[in-house]
């Protein structure tokens, strides 16, 4: 039996104390018990969205009302009178959204929300400095992310054109002002009010209205979606069970090791003076790792709650398995075994990373992107000095890691053994660097962190600065092909992917950073494309625009010719981007190896044309064969080839008519059937009518098959 760590009771906690007896029984503080009770209740209540509150059974208004009501109840239960801030901040921001011009609404909401949040942060530091007790600042940080991301999406949808937006911004752009019910349901819904994760407004509205589950497996891609009435909804049961079990494992690890490596011991004089520097590094790495498992527990459980309600579905993988990682906040294994700081950052607090990228990194000049992103992240967390030390150190370390990767990585890619050695070495170095950079974040104090950094002799800071400013002068980095387009711009070729191409200035510093930054863009582009199968009206326009811009030309790179007339409007728009990160790909006439790419494209188009001709020919022959078969059946109905009996009865044939068949002479048969000469013929009409009815049914089936199969074949045959 694990003895739980002793948590200090906080007298400043304003939430419910009904379950104090349970807190004393399990050895946890009452605020943590209240948090767990709400999250476990939310896990079970979330399943109602897939049963009693399914979109096919109730209206979206009822789903909105249920989500925000439970969220407000949880907020009051956990925070008491402080819950007034949960209502105050979004109410003020909603007034700003409804009253301000869309051209400036994003800045106004960001200013109001951050000011409100910082005031609450400051108040908490005054009355409860250094406490880790559950308080209102956590939900307010999530609400700030929601209202600011909504404001920027409104600005993108109402003001900016698709050609000015990235793929993610195009996907999240909002072109209809949210109603009060939709807005407050988005802000207060119980699935993410306590611990996140961040859900963008468009994803949440699609969830409430039931459109997020309309994606289909790749195996059904040849079906006509408009004619399909039944959609098999994916089940999140496996994903929920996996994340709940992972959350429990992380809670177990945290409870087990937090007593062995308590963070407070790092501030003690005995630890600073009587331990070696190697042990200090080891202790900092282990202490921060233990603290991380507390966040793993909370985020995995919150993600399971969202998935259990049907929120977080991204579509299907290539094998037809459903994926539930749209709003996942953490990738535990990817973070713990990351081989560089960029991968570690991308897999930690993914919702906040997406928020920072959407608000800052993609909208500011590229040379200031990293610095301003870390600055907003630090301010968003609060005023504790340890936060700013961590993010300042992180900015230096990330820049050094990019430079070091460019200088050394290519030297270890010759054999599989050297590649494996490089990956293992960088993974271990990343563990040490994370401990070195993040321990001020958990210590919170300025002087305690500075004293410990001095005991480390600031060695990683010095190594980082040397890597950034000195090593590039003596060590040649990885060569990257660069070609000028005559306008002072260069294109860097990375792995050969189109997304790795970016137009940057010719300064060597910006050029060396550009290719690495583009790798970070893949995560957000993947997020924007993860619901490509979902029927939305914004995505096709973006795809058409990209196809139009990237038309190949036959001119070499060093010749600047006027563009084709039909491309002139698009090129004018691309020549004047409104932000530094609006172009993920460039026209072919501005890329190196233009002639080779043009030839390859011509070959691909020729092969595609041959395939189309073959498919058209096959389809035409198939359709004509079906039509001929149908005509034969119709001919058999009109001229049945019946075998005549020995006597020449009522059915006769004219042997002199060149073998042609004639219709049955029904006029020779009397209505009363008394003609004895036609007694034999009266036995055959029922058989003929039965055969004709059978053939008619077969023809109806063939008609139905032709009407359904031929359009599908044609649509797939003409798809490139």
Automatic annotation (TrEMBL):
The chain crosses the membrane at residues 32-53, 65-84, 104-123, 240-258, 389-408, 420-442, 454-475. It is a multi-pass membrane protein. Its main location: membrane. It is found in: Membrane. This is Lysophospholipid acyltransferase 1. GO terms for biological process: germ cell migration; lipid modification; plasma membrane organization; sperm individualization. GO terms for molecular function: lysophospholipid acyltransferase activity. Coiled coil: none annotated. It comes from Drosophila erecta (Fruit fly). Keywords: Acyltransferase, Membrane, Transferase, Transmembrane, Transmembrane helix. Residues 485-576, 646-685 are annotated as: Disordered. PANTHER family: LYSOPHOSPHOLIPID ACYLTRANSFERASE 6, PORCUPINE. One of its GO terms (cellular component) is membrane. The keyword Acetylation does not apply. Residues 485-516, 549-560 have a biased composition (Polar residues).
């Amino acid at each position: 039996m694990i003895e739980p760590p002793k948590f200090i009771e906080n007298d400043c906690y304003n939430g419910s104390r009904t379950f104090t007896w349970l807190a004393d029984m399990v050895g946890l503080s009452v605020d943590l018990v209240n948090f767990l009770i709400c999250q476990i209740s939310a896990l079970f209540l979330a399943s109602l969205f897939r049963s009693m509150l399914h979109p096919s059974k109730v209206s979206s208004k009822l789903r909105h009302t249920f989500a925000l009501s439970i969220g407000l109840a949880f907020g009051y239960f956990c925070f008491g009178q402080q819950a007034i801030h949960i209502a105050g901040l979004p109410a003020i921001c909603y007034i700003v959204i409804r009253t301000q011009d869309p051209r400036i609404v994003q800045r106004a909401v960001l200013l109001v929300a951050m000011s409100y949040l910082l005031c609450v942060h400051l108040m908490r530091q005054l009355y409860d400095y250094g406490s880790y007790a559950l308080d209102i600042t956590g939900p307010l940080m999530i609400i700030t992310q929601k209202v600011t991301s909504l404001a920027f999406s409104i600005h993108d949808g109402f003001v900016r054109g698709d050609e000015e937006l990235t793929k993610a911004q195009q996907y999240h752009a909002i072109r209809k002002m949210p109603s009060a019910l939709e807005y407050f349901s988005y802000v207060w819904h119980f699935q993410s009010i306590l611990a996140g994760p961040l859900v963008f407004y468009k994803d949440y509205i699609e969830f409430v209205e039931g459109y997020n589950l309309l994606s289909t497996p790749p195996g059904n891609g040849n079906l006509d979606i408009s004619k399909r009435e039944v959609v098999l909804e994916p089940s999140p049961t496996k994903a929920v069970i996996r994340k709940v079990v992972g959350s429990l494992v992380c809670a177990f690890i945290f409870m087990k090791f937090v007593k062995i490596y308590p963070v407070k011991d790092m501030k003690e004089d005995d630890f600073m003076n009587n331990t070696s520097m190697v042990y200090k590094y080891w202790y900092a790495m282990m202490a921060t790792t233990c603290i991380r498992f507390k966040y793993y527990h909370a985020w995995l459980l919150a993600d399971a709650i969202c998935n259990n309600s049907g929120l977080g579905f991204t579509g299907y993988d290539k094998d037809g398995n459903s994926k539930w990682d749209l709003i996942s906040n953490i990738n535990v294994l990817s973070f713990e075994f990351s081989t560089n700081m960029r991968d570690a950052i991308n897999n930690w607090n993914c919702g906040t990373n997406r928020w920072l990228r959407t608000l800052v990194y993609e909208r500011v000049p590229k040379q200031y992107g990293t610095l301003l992103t870390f600055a907003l992240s630090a301010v968003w967390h609060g005023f504790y000095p340890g936060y700013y030390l961590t993010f300042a150190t992180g900015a230096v370390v990330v820049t050094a890691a990019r430079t070091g990767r460019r200088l050394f990585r290519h030297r270890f890619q010759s054999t599989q053994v050297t590649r494996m050695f490089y990956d293992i070495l960088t993974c271990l170095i990343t563990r040490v660097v994370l401990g070195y950079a993040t321990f001020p974040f958990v210590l919170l104090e300025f002087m305690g962190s500075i004293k410990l950094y001095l005991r480390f002799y600031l060695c990683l800071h010095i190594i980082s600065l040397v890597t950034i400013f000195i090593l590039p002068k003596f060590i040649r980095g990885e060569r990257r092909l660069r070609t000028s387009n005559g306008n002072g711009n260069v294109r860097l070729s990375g792995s050969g992917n189109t997304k790795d191409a970016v137009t940057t200035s010719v300064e060597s510093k910006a050029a060396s950073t550009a290719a690495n930054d583009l790798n970070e863009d893949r995560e957000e582009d993947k997020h924007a494309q993860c619901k490509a199968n979902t029927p939305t009206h914004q995505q096709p326009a973006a795809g058409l625009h990209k196809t139009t811009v990237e038309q190949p030309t036959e001119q070499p790179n060093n010749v600047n010719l006027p563009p084709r007339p039909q491309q002139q409007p698009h090129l004018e728009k691309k020549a004047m981007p409104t932000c530094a990160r609006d172009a993920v790909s460039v026209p072919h006439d501005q890329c190196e190896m233009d002639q080779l790419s043009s030839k390859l494209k011509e070959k691909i188009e020729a092969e595609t044309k041959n395939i189309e001709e073959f498919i058209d020919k096959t389809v035409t022959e198939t359709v004509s064969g079906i039509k001929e078969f149908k005509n034969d059946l119709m001919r058999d109905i009109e001229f049945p080839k019946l075998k005549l009996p020995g006597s020449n009865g009522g059915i006769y044939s004219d042997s002199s008519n060149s073998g042609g068949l004639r219709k049955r002479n029904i006029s020779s048969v009397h209505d009363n059937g008394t003609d004895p000469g036609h007694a034999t013929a009266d036995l055959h009409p029922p058989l003929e009518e039965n055969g004709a009815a059978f053939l008619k049914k077969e023809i109806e089936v063939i008609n139905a098959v032709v009407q359904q199969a031929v359009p599908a074949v044609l649509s797939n045959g003409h798809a490139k």
